[in-house]
Protein 1
Amino acid sequence: MYTEPLNKATLILEHWTNRIATSKYNPFYYHGALPQFYLWVLFLSGLLLFAYYIPTIDNAYASEKLINAWTSVDYITNKIPFGAVIRGIHRYAGDAMVITILLHMLRVWFTDRYRQYRIVQWLSGVVLLLMVLFIGQTGYYLVWDERSLILTRMTVSSFDSLPFIGEPLKWWFLNGREVTNYTLANFLFIHIGLSFSLLFVLWIHYVRMQRPVVTPPPVINYLLMAAILAVCALVPIESGKMAMLTQQPTNFEIDWFFVWPYWLMSIMPMPMYWITLIVGVVVLCVLPYFVRTKEVEPAEVVLNKCTGCSLCARDCPYAAIEMVPAPAGSRFKLLATVMPYRCSGCGVCVGACAFDAIDLPNLLDSDVTANITTLAKS
Amino acid sequence: MSKTKVITLICERSVDLSQHLEQNTLKDDPNVEVVQYPCSGMIQPLMVEAAMKAGASGVIVCGCQIGDCYYREGNKMIRERLLGERPPGLKKTVDRRRVIGLWLSRPQTGRFISEAKEFVAFVGKLNADEGPPKVEPAKPAPAAKPVGEAAKPAAEKPQEEAAKPASAVKDEAKAAAETLEAPAREEQKPSSDAKKTTGSSATAAEESANKTDELAKSAEKEKPKEPPAADSKSKKKA
């Protein structure tokens, strides 16, 4: 398969990491849990910032007592003890989350773990990626400095280029017909609301796996945190100048993790930008369907041998076995049933069964045992 | 002396043996036969027992690195089954020193071959020292004379006592299996450490065998006392 050289390269890289970290502490083996950790960091740091953030844009007068989003962020950064650290953690955890999500996506792709029975995980992962990217952008709007103003205006003009839905989208985004206090309150709602909605999509992302690995070992968590704190210390965050609606700033610093769509917007016509984005998302979603390998032959329960012990249901890594009430007349209370669309054909259920009551149709365990016996006797 | 045959139960995605196999036999060591699975999680402990019963001197179970199973958990499952932490388990009659687990990724072919050769030498030495693996449960020799109902409590006693040292052997073997696994994961640990631990568990096995004999002898001595005690006990219960 076309990813085989990539898979090999990944395995070799991880082999060398194992020699340093051992397999128990190899961060590559926790590739899904790393973004999950950063999500908790973002929730906590975001909660603390939320305590002091004011979502308004008023700046009709210049005064020390002016209270708006920009001054509240300035207050957090410069007046609140450790406020700058919390702000830095929040910003850099967001960037780190995008990095770890991309690494996760690449590893899952290179090691061929995104197709067939894993399709729900892949598709929900694409949705999660899009949500995380948009949440990050709304975070940049909230600071309400010159960059925020440019990004807001660029977003509005990008909606302008969409047929039919463009106008309603624009009014939803601005929470009105123009940028007002309602707009910033809307940005805050989207930022926080979408962030909590991530948990719902994460549930879908995890639901087809039993015992998903969502927590790295504490040592790795400490290292992840240390990485962010190091960047906080080396690259302290400063806001740009306060946004003035009457002005038209044109330059802004690109944060390549979240602000890259605006770079795209700046180098191509708007319709082209939308086509690029949509084509990119569609390619990601259909990629699993284009790879042709042999179909999985799902496991089959031998009905008259199943005792309902549930060991196969407990062990199945993809929650593909359900215990149902045994039919009337059975000696036993429960019966195992396989959901074929979830089955990976791994045979862990066969290994768990002490009653020879479940089989992979193309590899019967009785055949395997017979083979073993023959080889041992030879 | 019978040939030392070692059966390897390996998953397809673990060590890449495609260049090293002739039919099912390992080219580098013809004593090793290899059976492949889609995932090491499909290995039933019954299959390990079947291998031993059919005359294998040892069994190597090989899966991917713990944490990197292609099907998420297969290698963890078989590892826990072999260690007794997850049902179904390995029968107590299987000599734990003759079963090792290796958790290796695909590029680690050299590692697999060297571990396999070492294991073949190890079970060969066990065969030379103690004979081929016993597949029937050890019966305490003197107390096994059937003397009707009265002998039953006496016969049960040494078997109960035998069960305790057997589980001690199992714990030692657990430690041995873990230590044998540990070099597969932590490449720094020299494999001579593994040999030492299995050596000590071999001594423990010999001690437990001696204990069983001693208990059997003491049970025989106590046999005449048992019938009255049994009667009085049953009277109390009634």
Note: Confidence is low (pLDDT under 50) at residues 147-238 of chain B.
Protein 2
Amino acid sequence: MKFAPDKLKTNPVTRFFRDNNSAFILILVIAAACISASPKFTRVGNIINLTQSIGTYGILAIGLTFIFLVGGIDLSLAYQVALDGTLFVIMCNSIGFFPAFLITLAIGSALGYLNGTIITRLKIPSLIGTLAVMTGLKGLVLILNHDSGGIPVEISLFGKTFSKFYNLKLFGFLTPSHIVCLVFLVAFALFLRYKRSGVNMYVVGGNPEAGLFSGINNDRLTRIAFTIGGFCASVCSMLVVMRMNTSTYNMGDNLDIIAICSVVVGGVKMQGGKGNMAMCIMGVAIIQIINNVMTKLGMRTAMQALITGIVVILVLILDKSSSHIKNQKG
Amino acid sequence: MKERNSSRRGQWFAGKENLGVIAMVIVFVVIVVSFSGAKFFTAKNITNLLRSVSVVGIMSCAVTLVMVSGNIDLSLGWMIGFCAVITGQHSGNFGEALLFAVLAGTACGALNGFLVGVLRLNAFIATLGTMYIFKGVTTLYSDGRFVTKLDPSSVLEFVGQGQILNIPTPILVFLLFAVVFWFLLKKTSFGTKVYAVGANSVSAHFSGIRCWLIVLAVYMLTGLATGMAGTVLYAKVMSVQPYSGVGLEFDVLTAVVLGGTSVTGGKGNVLGTILGVLFVGILSNGFTLIGLGSNATYITQGFILLAAMWMDVKSSGGFKS
Amino acid sequence: MHPFIELRNITKLFPGVKALSNVSFTLLSGEIHALCGENGAGKSTLIKVMTGAHARDGGEYFIDGENVNFKSTHEGIVRGVSCVYQELSIVPEQDVAKNLFIGNLPMKGSVVDYKKLYADSKEVLRELGLDVSPKTPAGSLSIGQQQMVEIGRALTRKARCIIMDEPTSSLSESETETLFRIISFLKKKNIAIVYISHKLDEVMLLSDRITVIRDGENIITVNKNEITEERLVANMIGRSLENMYNKKTVPIGGNVLEVRNLTSKGIFEDISFNVRSGEIVGFFGLIGAGRSEIMRAIFGVDKYEAGEILMNGRKLRPGSSNAAIGSGIGFCTEDRKKEGLMLQLSILINMTIVHLRQFTSLGVINRSKQRKITDRYIDDISIKTPSFHQLTGNLSGGNQQKVVVAKWLMMNPKLLIVDEPTRGIDIGSKAEIYSLLGDLAEKGVAIIVVSSEIEEVMGLSDSVITIHEGKMTAQFDMSGEPSREDILTAALGTGKA
């Protein structure tokens, strides 16, 4: 009987590098390029700005990572963000911040749960289930925002406007989105490693039949993953509302696509069974750093889109050539 | 021998129950709309309806092939934007406009096909990536600005706004593409190979089919159709915003999936897609007629999509990957 | 004392079929009980009733004398009934330890106890004699090792009975030996084994008792030493099988395929042989010896580094299956579900996909011609199906294999390569496939049969080539009546030592 190659039995650090190699190479190259290309990049203000947007986008990406882990996809995330955000603004203006905050979290989770339930109960691919939900939510969002307008926030929080609050700095650098994202990262990383449901999610995406034969409730875990996705979308939506001080019908546009690209760039496998919080946030960081540097270099947004697309495809190609585990399911 | 032939009809119907649902809903919507006093069955309304779905229709027919081959194309929204902008830039000369738009579309499709067919990247992510690329190229090319020309070619005007025998030309273009793609998928050996690749690409490879070539071809055909659709899109109003196609890929996906094409490949047909396209058109037209507005259409459309899929799954005993 | 498992008069109905009728089965602790029967006889249904995957429609199920009624496989697992599935249940990206304890992670309070997980996994791996780190991703193990992990998984669940369904069908010789060693280790731990296999020599070697099932009914249950292999076969198929191979003498013509010094580093080396028209050449060797890889290289789906392949005297372009098909090579692959068929498509498409050109003019298919010819082939090789519109996924294994063969027959091959043509199909269908190959040879088709069953190779072939670790070790002319031992020795590579 042949033994597994030695390189597979390495310590956690090398294993980490191996699992994330393409993302790592990229982030190093990019970081080096950034620092040498633009002195503006390394200014403290810019770094805070950058990490702030990493935080906001990161939260959505965290939710998406869970959905990818169980082998799903959620096309409705953009409109979930828009609906959560719109309802949040409406409620803030009528019943105040804290009730609105809690209810938005509940609504977000419920939307995620709805997605999960539709997929598992009707047994349809998540691509189609969430496409249907997306279409429905789009209608709702447009109605609530009166077609193309938005709803401005009319209240303030601790005597500060929302956008001031969004940029509030604890210890001079920690903004709310930093804190929320860090807390989420740590909490969900611990969940994935130490909770039974967390570990079992890898089985649902990696080999659902195995789960079925081992008493793992695939459907329940799928619902949990989508619920986490919806929950994260609601948190992200509130941060976006705070930044803009208003809701708009298209506030979620592109967020989901950026999240998908980021997570994939980080090395999370879309077909399920592979991924963690480190990969997730690394992917988000890469995409955000690239965008930040391009902005700092004065590049046009069109050029930025072009380069983002090329990066996504390059990472896919790199991943393809470096994958060490053969896809057993063909 | 007799037995075998007699079971053909039953086989044809099997797995198409969702089309039954769609047909039923179409009839239902039409009846409701007619009884509410709105003038659905007027020649003007029907032509309006068909004219409004023609762009999505042209693309959906081609995308059916992509989906049957087991792939997906999410880059369409910006691809059509690109083609429409090119049409606009050359709108003084129809031949030039069409040629450049179709060439650009085909080239975009070739890029998708190369990434998915030859490099064998995940179609979902790869076409998201190319979506960004097309977005960048289109915005660079158009400078992000609204494109229009004062003295467009009369032929182009005819393609967008003219009619033959009282039928608007965009509808005829849609019809032409529907027939061509139906024929390709159903009647040619190329079509059979598309099914084979979608059903099991390994087995197709072992049967001597060059899978990469088939995938490349279906993406290029989609690009070609998108080029044509872009020309029609521009010609309908003789102006275009570079981002005007954003979100169109989901309309196309909805129509194709409603028409019974499987997202996992190997199953689907162009006739179903046409029904799906018509359905989306009738729904939104009907809702507008009875004053519910297009936003309510989206909500209903979501429900119908779920219902249709659910019927499909019930009849086939679940999706199997 | 009660037997561990007792099934009494189990009945299971599927729409239109009675899959099991009044089957009774007992399993004693620590015994190895073989379950034999043709495909479709009801073995898998019986297993599924045992594990809890299927609910029974009639009869009683006792474990330790207690009446049970499992609603899921998990309930079965909790009561000690585990099943080792072939490809189904490894999670490739997860490490070995998590695969061992899947659905059964050791917990400390409400969190996973990693220390215990890895310590316990090490212990299980040691017991099984599997020398891999528990932190290795399971996907990087060999098939045999993955199977060990599955057996280990049953151990971690304190299984009292392990059901093994065709466990050796994709194992190499040494892996099979390891498996047998582990089975006897399990027996010593008083764990009962239900062993299902088409390979009767394994059944005779391993089992304590044998139960034969045919058409959903229990035919016999006997102690191993009370039955011979021949009587076992007779019981399985309901008649005695005279000479399955029925080898005809066929005039052999000129060279069709010539292979010269074919080499692909690390896989096979310096392979040279000829196949003549009307000749059946058998390739015998262990799984993993490189037989299939040679065939894949000839067919052009894999590349090779050196050597050349000539079809009818003309050099074949390497790495192009299209060129191979064009020159008249057909290839019935080893894995008919993954490589041979498109399960969700009809028989019609599956059979005609290789040679669509035959029905096509200017790219357009002539449907009536396509249907007529397909119908003729269905009749000719008696594929049991109501219609050519039937999806191949709904056919039995034997009929699926016939569709695969038919798909290559349609292009009138000059050379047909068949890789493990009878794996996992029942004895009745086997005989039909054999006679089909015989008929083809009679028509002047050159045939290569790759098989790991020595009887099959000896019974079918005019000449046998043995492969060991990627090298040709011998070529036997069957008219010289070489002994079984000679061929086996050559294939095991022990001849020269």
Note: DSSP finds 15 helices and four strands in chain B.
